[in-house]
Amino acid sequence: MGTTVKKLIALFLLMTLFATCACSPAPSREPEKITIIEEGSFFRGFEVSGKYVRIYCHYEVKNNTSEQLKFKIKGNFRADVKGGLLKEATLYAANIGMGVHGPLEYEFTIAPNWERGCEVVFVGEAGGAETKHDRLLPETEIEYISES
């Protein structure tokens, strides 16, 4: 077999492989049940009070399902631990939509196919520093609560 024929066979095999890969559907990811709408979510401020730091934020969230969901909002504050503001990196947001007096409620509920705002506070043990490294929302994760 000549080199031209070998090159044509190799080219044909590469084209077949490329066509097979290009025509295969991409693996589908299940959409998130609840999404954070970044355009409407923002950092409000923080305060150091005694042994505690309170970080206030507003989240706009959307339920993408046809069922009511309960969830928690978890924030990662690694940079604020590194900077000495906080002693712990992972904090859960408390619902302060009705004010900050009384016991803190860490569960949120959202109606089916609905968007809502969540006024929250993350409370953590103070690390000694009184400055926050940025004025951004923390790296945020939604944790679902089952109804069992």
How would you characterize the overall build of this protein?
Strands 1, 2, 3, 4, 5, 6, 7 and 8 form an 8-stranded antiparallel β-sheet that branches. This protein has one domain (34-145): Immunoglobulin-like, CATH 2.60.40. With 148 residues, the protein is α+β, with helices and mostly antiparallel strands. Strand 2 and strand 3 form a beta hairpin. The chain has helices spanning 3-23, 78-82, and strands at 34-36, 42-49, 52-63, 69-76, 90-95, 108-110, 115-125, 139-145. The relative contact order is 0.24. It is built from 2 helices and 8 strands; from the N terminus they run H-E-E-E-E-H-E-E-E-E.
Share in β-strands: 35-45%
Low-confidence parts? none
DSSP helix fraction:
10-25%
Q: How many domains make up the 3D coordinates?
A: 1
SSE order and pairing:
Layout: H1 3-23, E1 34-36, E2 42-49, E3 52-63, E4 69-76, H2 78-82, E5 90-95, E6 108-110, E7 115-125, E8 139-145
Antiparallel strand pairs: 1-3, 2-3, 3-7, 4-5, 4-6, 4-8, 5-7
Structure described in brief:
The protein has helices spanning about 5-25, 80; strands spanning about 35, 40-50, 50-65, 70-75, 90-95, 110, 115-125, 140-145. The chain has about 150 residues and is an alpha+beta fold. It has a single domain (about 35-145), classed as Sandwich (Immunoglobulin-like).
